[in-house]
Amino acid sequence: MTDDRLKSLGKTMVPPPSAHARQAAHDAAMAAFEAAQERAADEKESHPNQGSSIGARLRSITSRWKGPWTMELRYGLGAAVAAVLFVPLGWQLLNQTALTPPALPQPELGTAQSGTVPVAEPAPTPDDAARRSEADAEVRESVVAAEELAVAPAPMSTASQTLQPLSGIAPSSNDGFAQVPSIGDRFTAFEDNGVTLTAEQPVSTFSVDVDTASYAYVRRALEMGQVPPPEAIRVEELINYFSYDYPVPAPGGAPFAPSVTVTSSPWDADNRLVHIGIRGEALEVSAVPPANLVLLIDMSGSMDAPDKLPLLKRSLGLLVNEMGPEDTLSIVTYAGQAGVALEPTSGGDKAAIMAAIESLVPGGSTAGAAGIEEAYRLARSAFIQDGTNRVLLATDGDFNVGLSDPDGLEDFIAEKRDDGIFLSVLGFGMGNYNDAAMQALAQAGNGTAAYIDDFAEARKVLVEEMGATLVTIAKDVKIQVEFNPATVAEYRLIGYETRTLAREDFNNDRVDAGDVGAGHTVTAIYEITPVGAPGSVDPLRYGEDEPGVGNAGDELGYLKIRYKEPDSDVSELIETPIRPGLAEASADTAFASAVAAFGQKLKGSDALHAMSWDEIRALADTGRGADPTGRRAEFIGLIGLAESLTQ
Predict the structure, then answer these.
(1) Distances, alpha carbon 606 to alpha carbons 195, 230, 619, 640, in Å
(2) β-sheet with 268-279: strand ranges across
(3) Measuring CA to CA, how many Å separate 24 from each of 16, 28, 116, 121?
(4) Burial of 93 by CB count in 10 Å (0-12 exposed, 13-18 middle, 19+ buried)?
(5) CA–centroid distance for 438 within its chain
(6) Percent of the chain with pLDDT over 90
(7) Whole-angstrom Cα distance, residue 237 to residue 208?
(8) Is the whole model's pTM more than 0.90, yes or no?
């Protein structure tokens, strides 16, 4: 074709479009598209994707770190789009009644329907423009309402506006301040010790308690801005979290010597506090016997949290660092079923031990009973005669599989205790923390229960106090006090509600009680009302004419302590009178009194109603002393947190 011909064609008028040709082209394109879809479906059936599910497929072809964040990003964008598109519609439907359904917008004239050929749209009329303007305004109002709904709190009823604690937190039954929500943490419920009339019941008996789990749990709750539930606050464990400078027992004699001090009550000027303290003899490093330890580690899915298994693994590094070649360590894990992660290994082979610890990965349910049986089997296989043989159970206490008979498990642990293998418990985490089970197992195993909420607490339990945790110097330690009705009208034991014993249990060597480790200090405090002072309970009209006849002089009472040597089944007895002399509070007695006041006030006790937080803080500051570890200063800081949360 010549150039002139091309130029002439350029001047030719283009014919109008043919509706028939356009329809034919559209039909041909749709037919080609459907054919391509059928070929793709056939190919997919003949070559299926590998993997069992979309989720598994995705994780198998992408790196572990990339998969979660990319999917989370998609979910986030999808949620944002859904909020803009569907929340306005949901909000509109919510505000409509069943009798007046919402008026749905009608499709605009000339709108193309799916699967049809688009046709020319007529020019808009003034009425059409008005309708579109109204529709646009409604859309804008819906979007604004959705945005306000996303950021504004849900409307409250009039009744619920009187008290709005933190989200998910129930009000206290005592004072109405916010408490830790019942998110699965379980504690043994108990009633606080009440006031007892000496003339009616002059004898008080209980088992010692050297556990510290309650204090660490209370501290963590307060630092999270929440008040712990009353059943989580065991006042004796708060007091015994701290060490006190009680007299050291004489060499070659009893493993501890009692110390008794009587001071004024800081919260009731008419009353007195009787402080009873014992301090276990400390052992030189060279005298510490070799240890055979079995770590029984909870590997269930509930342990997959930063404050659980990862913290546990870091904490165990501290313990391994303290072990020597003469010590032995084994590791048993349980999750679904028990398994041996490390056979008995010398403490000198730290690389092998740490490699086994670092390889631990959580997953599965919790078959705790099977794990405990396996742990005791390993402990028996590596048993050290005249040494320390102990199972250390590390868990959040979530025994949900394989523990159909808790009493039977406790009996099993008690039986192994009689064979010389003890059990201690290390608790971790919040959310399904089972303090009740941990306390029961530790008591059955002649061991201690500690709660590790951070790395500093791990160092305290596994390094500073490991001698006391591992080396028992006295077992089945019981305390009994007989108060003199001639001088003491009423008394009240502060704490130890879960450790009380019957009067006849004191002389019964078959009754189990708490144990004292090397260097342990134990403190018990009674609040007493002297005869003649205003009391809480009226005396009996028809009581004895001379209630104090037959008692020794002006003594306040008589203290008796029973204990067994670690390898003996027969108890020994320590006795001493409680003299009435009023002593000036030392730093230790002042601080112990402040901790006792703190625990009672935090629980909402009526006995501490008249004592303010400022007074408790001043008392604690008086007893702070040298405080080389800084723990007493930390406690004073907790007083401020408790005050701010309970106002």
Answers:
(1) 12, 13, 19, 20
(2) 196-197, 488-494, 521-530, 268-279, 258-265
(3) 16, 6, 13, 21
(4) exposed
(5) 12
(6) 49
(7) 10
(8) no
Q: Is the pLDDT of residue 540 over 90?
A: no
How many angstroms separate the CA atoms of 50 and 43, rounded? 14
Kindly give the interhelix angle for 613-622 and 587-602, rounded to the nearest 10 degrees: 160
Are 256 and 289 spatial neighbours (Cβ–Cβ below 8 Å)? Answer: no
Domain boundaries, the chain: 196-218+235-283+473-533+551-646, 286-470
Spatial distance between the Cα atoms of 225 and 240, rounded to a whole number of angstroms: 24
CA atoms within 13 A on the CB side of 59: 6
Q: At what angle do helices 406-418 and 435-444 cross, to 10 degrees?
A: 30
Give residue 62's Cα distance to chain centre.
35
Q: Which numeric CATH code is attached to 196-218+235-283+473-533+551-646?
A: 2.60.40.1230
CB 474 within 8 A of CB 565: yes
| 355, 313 Cβ separation under 8 angstroms | no
Read off the pLDDT of residues 34-67 as tens digits, 9 standing for 90 and up: 777 666 666 555 544 444 443 333 333 233 333 3
DSSP letters along 470-522, please? H-EEEEEEEEEEEE-TTTEEEEEEES-GGGB--GGGGG-TTS--EEEETT-EE
557 membership: H or E segment, kind and range: strand 557-564
The tokens describing 73, both together, are: 């990003």
% of residues, the chain, pLDDT over 70: 68
Which tokens belong to 450?
């500690």
Q: Which value, in Å, is the radius of gyration of the alpha carbons in the chain?
A: 37
Question: What Cα–Cα distance (Å) separates residue 172 from each residue in 166, 228, 230, 565?
Answer: 12, 9, 8, 44
CATH superfamily of 286-470: von Willebrand factor, type A domain (3.40.50.410)
* Encoded tokens for 505: 């249990």
CA pair distance 136, 142, nearest whole angstrom = 10
Q: Could you give the C-alpha distances from 628 to 242, 501, 622, 624, 633, in angstroms and in order?
A: 12, 36, 16, 10, 10
